Amino acid sequence: MGLRGVIVLVGLMGTTWSFNATTIRPEAVSTDTFARPETTEETTEQKGAVAEEEAVEDVMATGELNPSHYPAQRAAKVVQHYLNTRYGSPYKLFGLKQVQSGNAEDVADSGRKYQLDISVHEIISDTKENCSAEVFFPRGVKQLSPQVQVSSCEELLKIDANSEEEALYQQYKTNKTLRTEKRLPDSYGHIDPEMTPFWHLGIVASSFIMLNESTENTLYNVAQVANITQLTTENDQLKFDCHVLLHDMVSQEIPQWKMLFTWSPAGGVKVLHTEQLPHVHDCEKHPKTN
Amino acid sequence: MPHTLNSPDKMKGLWFLLALVAVAKAEKSFTGDQVVRVDVQSEEQLKLLQVLESEEKWNLDFWLHPVSTELPVDVLVPHTHLAAVKEYLQAHNIPFTVMIDNLQELLDQEKAEMKENHLREHSTRSFNFGAYHRLETIYSWMDTFVAQHSNLVTKLDIGRSYENRPMYVLKFSTGGTKRPAIWIDLGIHSREWVSQATGVWTANKIATDYGTDASLTSLLNTMDIYMLIVANPDGYVVTHTNNRMWRKTRSKNSGYACLGVDPNRNWNAGFGGPGASSYPCSESYHGPSAHSEIEVKNMVNLIQSHGNFKSFISVHSYSQLLMYPYGYTCRGAPHQAELDSVAKAAVQKLSSLYGTSYKVGSICNIIYQASGGSIDWSYDAGIKYSFAFELRDTGRYGFILPADQIIPTASETWLALKHIMEYVRDHPY
Lengths: 290, 429
Fold this sequence. Notes:
By secondary structure, chain A is α+β, with helices and mostly antiparallel strands. Chain A has helices spanning 2-12, 26-30, 70-87, 154-157, 162-173, 196-213; strands spanning 63-65, 94-107, 111-122, 127-138, 147-151, 179-180, 220-234, 237-248, 256-264, 268-276. Chain A: Residues 1-18 form the signal peptide.
């Protein structure tokens, strides 16, 4: 292994060491004792359209959490999705600003409960407030959605966007004029100003999916609203068909979903139907037949 | 032999022309319309295509007509007839691929770029740093840039990509031989567009400030900077033509229809361990072996043969993070305390510009355990000051960050980069 290998080992043990090398020898890299041996190409038995990550579930942190580290961050993101499902609208969208503190504990064998102090940002009015929240991730054979409770967030939720919401609602209620196949935003991050409220609506509706799908091993954002189409108004609710691309930061996958949802200022967003689209793989060119 | 998608310049030129023609055909909208390339396999299939062409009801626009089984057939299919046409082709076992998946988007883009080029002089002073550019535009800018700053900058060809595109490193040097150097790579995950865009702006910043900024000038008088602006050129092209969300390389995976390997799970650091997938269709597929990806191998070769890099910085988006090793394990790196303090100071400088807040920590603690990452490899190879940036934002726009945030992002990031580089300069080892 040589002197270099020994230095690496010593480094492993956490002692400080100064590195006097002027050359970097490849051996130093490949003889790392903690590197995994190169795996041979596996003949995978992978079933199902979506790959299972080889995520090792380290023993999750319990007790007081580091607010910058991912366990608290992932739980806080779930609170964001929850707030958007409950209070989001074309003119009201919540973002997570910061996690101030967090705590996690196992609940018998039924799951894991997080207590969080976070600051939340209403993006359109640019208002911030501190909130407390509890997120419970149930554990079980069947994957259940997390449960969220929020407290001391009242000021944020009282934000008034009524006049804009009402104006939009009236405009689109009788004249079914919205029909767009433009992606929101487009590849360059651009959105036409008239389309922005519908981008927000797409995000709010997506929040129902993101909330339902969240676990301690996911971190969802909306990557893009691929398409949003207005359908005929029903029961005084504007109705929409929507195709969205989500992004899970942990797996880096882009799950695609179709949704049917309604909205009105009084009713908020209600999701009628969701459907995950099959994973679209970029295929290699069709194999040559000769 | 039929043309491949990747005879880029010639075919792109042809399509550009055809796109212009399409635009000339009044204010028609091509939203959702696709250009499909059909690989006719037999005379019988050729006849079927010819019949298709004659059927007016389909409203098909043949860009390359069905004339021979040796030549591809390109068809512009209106979105209303897409499903029916594809079904028809599939029913007759006629192979096809989608070349352009939304013609309107391409036209809009090209129109915008044409306008941009029209206004542009042959000078980097008028190059729009506040816009996202295609690969060819970045590469041609590089040549202008190097010509304008030839006393400081050279362009190194460090090898080809899987699809045979050159990989260019800009070397900033005032002389010497293999001076202690700083490595910066951007765009290894092609969909993270603000990364490549930040690289272009930063390269220009370094060249412009050299000679006027005392600290940068002193740095460049003793150290070199190597910057790889587009570490994944194949992927970058895909994000412009076909799939904005493409992340990986474009290598073929034996036995699977899925393309590509996650280039940031392919380095020889805990390779194949947790946080990387062994499934080729996964976005975090680590590849068949460490450094299997030519793009990664090219970087590794350069770093190893140089032998005197003192800092290694990888730039990604999004999440607003500045991280240090390790990703492949949550065990602390030997220099964790020092790296943490450098990162914290760098982030403070960053946020001083616009108040943008970043978090600092090891990869494993901050986002996830992830094996085979570049900065783990560089750190374990002895390059102590190894860092990874995740630029703006925190998820509102995500990968599709509006172009008007490019310059603010690059400007604030520059303050952090400068801090790290100055620290490296002042702490030789």
